[in-house]
Automatic annotation (TrEMBL):
Highest classification ranks of the organism: Bacteria, Bacillati, Actinomycetota, Actinomycetes, Propionibacteriales
Protein name as annotated: DUF3040 domain-containing protein
Residue ranges, compositional bias (Basic residues): 115-124
InterPro entries, per the entry: DUF3040
Pfam families: DUF3040 (PF11239)
Record keywords: Membrane, Transmembrane, Transmembrane helix
Presence of the UniProt keyword Transmembrane helix in the record: yes
Region feature Disordered, mapped onto this chain: 94-126
Organism whose genome encodes this protein: Nocardioides acrostichi
Residue spans crossing the bilayer: 42-59, 65-86
Length: 148
């Protein structure tokens, strides 16, 4: 059941008041369960990766190559899951970047303090697309090497 405009405004006011009153409590509630689940997935993936190494080595030693391939696939899958879990864990600790003045679904805003200047410098330095930069490098190398 959708909330009315008045209920949404009241809820946003309550969230703002809670944030102003106890910001430590609000920061504790944000992302705690997501981080815990991501950490658990990363640990399980590490254990499965270790088991994959054992299976791979047993397959290599016993010259049963199918077992070695299975071990490698298990290692590859668990490494993928573990890296995604670690990425999710670091993303759970961060707030979504929202332009100034807009609010995400939860009603909380994030103000980027001091980051805009650095990002602007990086964009100015890396103006142009990837292919343009590669072509420029190629031209410089050809000029430096006498046409080769």
């Amino acid at each position: 059941m959708a909330l009315s405009e008045e209920e949404l405004r009241t809820l946003e006011q309550m969230e703002r008041a809670l944030t102003e009153e106890d910001p430590k409590f609000v920061s504790t509630l944000r992302g705690t369960s997501l981080r815990r689940a991501a950490r658990r997935r990363a640990i399980v993936a590490g254990v499965v990766f270790t088991l994959g190494i054992v299976v791979l080595m047993v397959g290599a030693v016993s010259k049963f190559w199918v077992l070695g391939i299975v071990g490698f696939v298990v290692m590859l899958g668990s490494a993928t899951v573990g890296l995604n879990a670690l990425r999710g864990q670091s993303a759970a600790g961060r707030e979504p970047v929202v332009p100034h003045g807009e609010q995400p679904h939860g009603g909380f805003t994030l103000i980027q303090g001091g980051r805009r200047g650095r990002a602007g410098r990086n964009r100015a330095r890396s103006s142009g697309g990837f292919m343009e930069r590669l072509e420029e490098r190629w031209r410089r190398r050809r000029e430096e090497n006498g046409g080769f």
